[in-house]
Design brief:
The complex is a heterodimer. The longest helix of chain A is centred in the middle third of the chain and has 23 residues, at 19-41. By secondary structure, chain A is an all-alpha fold. Chain A has 2 helices and no strands. Chain B is of the alpha/beta class. In chain B, the strands form 3 sheets. Chain B has a 6-stranded parallel beta sheet with strand order 7-8-9-10-11-12. Chain B has a 3-stranded parallel beta sheet with strand order 1-5-6, with helices on both faces. In chain B, strands 2-3-4 form a 3-stranded antiparallel beta sheet, with no helix packed on it. In chain B, helix 5 (166-178) runs parallel beside helix 6 (204-213) and helix 8 packs parallel to helix 10. The longest helix of chain B has 19 residues, at 129-147. Chain B is globular, with a radius of gyration of 20 Å. Chain B starts with 8 loop residues before the first strand and ends in an 8-residue tail after the last helix. Classes of the chains: A mainly alpha, B alpha/beta.
Chain lengths: 70, 386
Amino acid sequence: MADEDIPASDWTEQDLLTRDLADERLDQEQAETIARLQALRLTPDPDPEAVGLLERRLRAIEASRAHITG
Amino acid sequence: MPLQPWMKLISVDDHLIEHPRVWADRLSRTHLERGPRIVDEPSPSGGAPIQVWYYEDKRFPAIGLNAVAGKRPEEFGVESVRYADMIPGCYDPAARIVDMDLDGVFAAANFPSFPRFAGAMFTVESKDPDLGLACVCAYNDFVIDEWCATAPDRLIPLIILPLWDPELCVAEIHRTAAKGAKGITFPENPVPLGLPSIYTDHWDGVFSAAEDTGMPLCMHFGSSGSPPVTAPEAPYAVTIALYGTNSMSATAHLLFSPVFHRHPKLRVALSEGGVGWVPYLLERIDGTWQRHRWYQNVVKDVRPSDLFRKHIYGCFIDDVAGLKARHDIGLGNLTWECDYPHSDSYWPASRTYAEKVFADIPDDEVHQIVELNARELFGFHAGQAG
């Protein structure tokens, strides 16, 4: 825990999303998206459009991660 | 699912972090040495050098750069970090668009960081007004020509003003409107910044220029430089929890002042203050006006809540109380915000989260709140970028 308050002269909201925090969130989002995709594929007649959307989302996660992790 | 896939989320309150060359690339040689510049300094903890802003001869270690690299909320602290520790979407507009795509957010208006939320840095800290004006213009040129030009149909330009001189403000409003500005950041209360209040006629030219150009005044909470600190021993959590009260104060000032009577086309967007408090405050203000207007210097023939609905917009990320009261507030007065890149945001799941927030709201109302009201507010219409 921080042992002193942030000496902000304005409301500057110090808590920016940082690389590590963003990477953690991407991990979580990726895991949830993969789980949704797997569940969808296990259905008798998976909607190709819904599958495509989730696959695109996985690619978007990787695109964002490429920026974030450099 | 009320938040339909074709609805475009527009965040009216995101933030950008100015990259180190925003002013270095734009200031004249005369101003360059004293303009905002990033300086590497040894880390107090012995780690990699930290990066801090300097402006004129003053050091600003706590503005915009003191992110909490890789820490969990319980570890948030005060040490400055380097740009390399931030996610590029903070300061790189191309990376921002990638992050917005993933987040399901179509467009966003961004507030400044180093200049403070209403650009007051250059008013409060400038010893040289010529330099201050050059810095204001440089920021506005950056935000229009570089940041928003990256994706003019998705990034909404908000400008800052040389608040110390209303005539310069008017000139800057017209200069930037001509090159595509869509909104004007303005202090939620100018008085704590040492400036005249909105009850005076000091700002009339500025407000008229905002009307003439169709740009709203965007008042982010905290932009008065007067956070709600209630006790010396109170943790910062108290201040954070109470910041919405600054938006409440701004609302009361606006509704009891002559501003909207003198400027019938002026619109104000209250940023990050939530909306759940609106019904209570309007009831209270109307009640006060009903009983006490006769002996006070307030307009006596227009009910304050009518002014609110005509002139003021609120926004929220998640505000269950506000959504329940949306018809009392006014559907036309509600907008949505994301708050990227602050960790208050739900990135990269803002759209997924918004689907839950709006689950019980009719589709047409959701569309109005997440997209249409913001387009109207900023004159940011589909297919009419820039």
